[in-house]
Amino acid sequence: MRFAASVLALAASANAACVAKHPVNGANGYPVVAHNAIAGHASNSTIKAVSSSASAAVPAATSGSATTSAKASASSPASGASKIASVPVQNKLAAASNIKGFNYGAFFMNQQAKLQNDFAYEFNRAKNLPGTNGWSSARLYSMVQWNTANDVIQAIPAAIDTQTTLLLGMWISGGPQAIDNEIAALKKAMSTYGSKFTDLVVGLSVGSEDLYRQGAGEIGTTPEYLIECIQKVRDAIRGTALEGVQIGHVDTYDSFVGQQAVIEHIDWLGFDGYPFWEKNNPNSIENAHERFYEGFSKTKALAGSKPVYVTETGWPVVGKQQGAAVANAENARRYWKDIACSLIESGVNLWWYDLQESQYGQAEPDFGIFPAGDLGQLQPSYELTC
């Protein structure tokens, strides 16, 4: 999802999901990542940002730093990649439909890692939202537990305990070690939890907005390297219970344009759309329907016969005005009633951003359905009935 004019942007280590555009490097040489690992970019928008939690947790280094440039290059080792042949996708599993869920990051706003009970608490709250039913899926950004090399993220046992389905994510930006650690954690999850885990998997995303960030001069990947990573994952799961899982990539509409080679290598496309951030276009709440479905429809046209999932969208209840877009609970309700409800009615797989963004302090902007505090004791900031 997006943040503010400081242009915070997603990038990640082997075990994380979102960082500032010019990150402070951690001990392992990868960018320090932030809460909720969310990013997004509406079609033709000018601002890119992470979960607002990152604004409180991750200081930005000097703009245009050499370190950032070096990491952006290192994250996309394209040598020889252009020679990769187009490989037909062959999967045994049909794409699921009518899925409803939320995006979940690896740690809290104070950078404390989420543990199994934390994930389970969130998953259970999502299943019991007033005026709704069926919100029982979780989109993850990484297979790796925060602050570890390649331990399995504790969202996995929490999903098993709560019977929450999983759209798995594998972070690939930030250097070649990222995908290796993600694959290692995925293999550990299959070995440790077996069919209790694999039966819950409804899809797997290799990367998240890497093409967007690469094109914006941030820490992303080239199309060639993305294809390499997709093939690495297919090779890694060959002969396992996940061999037939539908593999996709999540990005923005305009980042998929001209990337037919990438589209040929995936089974589904993940669309991230945020009218709130499209301040170069009419983006008031009155224009939100047109903005969202414009990008969604164009993504479907690029996908051809392949399904398009809505992997991120939402409207903030708190935040600075972006163009004509005003953040408040009334507009968030209108956006939910229009976009969430119409997607549900159409049976489109949907992972909303997000359940709660401000566990500690106040995120800016705040896209969370719930305000800060104990999820079990709070009521949503706006009505969720359709």
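The record above closes out task 2.4. Task 2.5 opens with a second protein, given below.
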Amino acid sequence: MSEEEKVEEQTEEKLENEVEKTEEKDFEAEYNALKDQYLRANAEFENIKKRLEKEKLNAMAYANESFAKDLLDVLDALEAAIKVEASDEVSLKIKEGVQNTLDLFLKKLEKHGVKEIESACEFDPNLHEAMFHIESAEHQSGAVVQVLQKGYKLGERVIRPTKVSVAK
């Protein structure tokens, strides 16, 4: 083998090595790109899975919201019946029965997460609906003067705000 052939052979080997290294770098770059793409897709999938699980839990927790809202009218009627004056024995027995029914009804609502919004002294637009403003020397401006209709929550969600009058 001549010197020229050896040099040519070495040059070819170097070129082949460089081509192999370039191909290896290309494969490594492609591998890293695909790995990154996979990790991002997997993370996105996990986020979607968590979001759907959260939405499912919310849907289950608040599935009865509409039904509970409808029952609040019945609750108001029972509370109004309790406030009626009763003087004779029959009326008192009826009123006692209505009170027992109201107590049972409230317990069942509470069992399913429906609770009365506590009446606060300060107006909170997240919990209260101001029906009107009145002048009051006894109350500070923005204070709840009178509760006109009780409000209720289902879990942490307000299903009916408390209707109030607010001091100017």
